[in-house]
Specification:
single chain, disordered N terminus
């Protein structure tokens, strides 16, 4: 006897449009390019309260020049504005992944 297996599709909370990804990557590239921005992984998650969020893991290449911490100030606000313009309501949680040897200037 054949069995039918139902596989739940991704809910709207779990999908991220290419337009959304492109908007986030543009803000990151424009703001963080001078700091060695090399890409970002963007995925749908839920925060500790169960609310839908966008988890943004930002990757950098190593630079001999120390990176100013001021470069990231206000970044989430800028990303949120770009997302809001697209009708995206999920809050972006941004995590930065620098090379272990990277120096950060205050």
């Amino acid at each position: 006897m054949d069995r039918i297996h139902y596989i739940a599709g991704m809910s709207d909370e779990q999908t991220i449009s290419n337009t959304t990804k492109s908007a986030v990557e543009k803000v990151l590239r424009d703001r963080l390019g001078p700091a060695g921005f090399s890409g970002a992984d963007i995925r749908a998650e839920h925060d500790s309260d169960g609310d839908p969020i966008l988890l943004v893991d930002v990757k950098y290449v190593y630079s001999d020049k120390p990176i100013s911490s001021k470069l990231t100030y206000g970044l989430s606000t800028e990303v949120r504005k770009a997302l809001s313009a697209l009708g995206e309501t999920r809050f972006p949680h941004i995590r930065h992944h620098f090379d272990e040897q990277q120096k950060i200037a205050s």
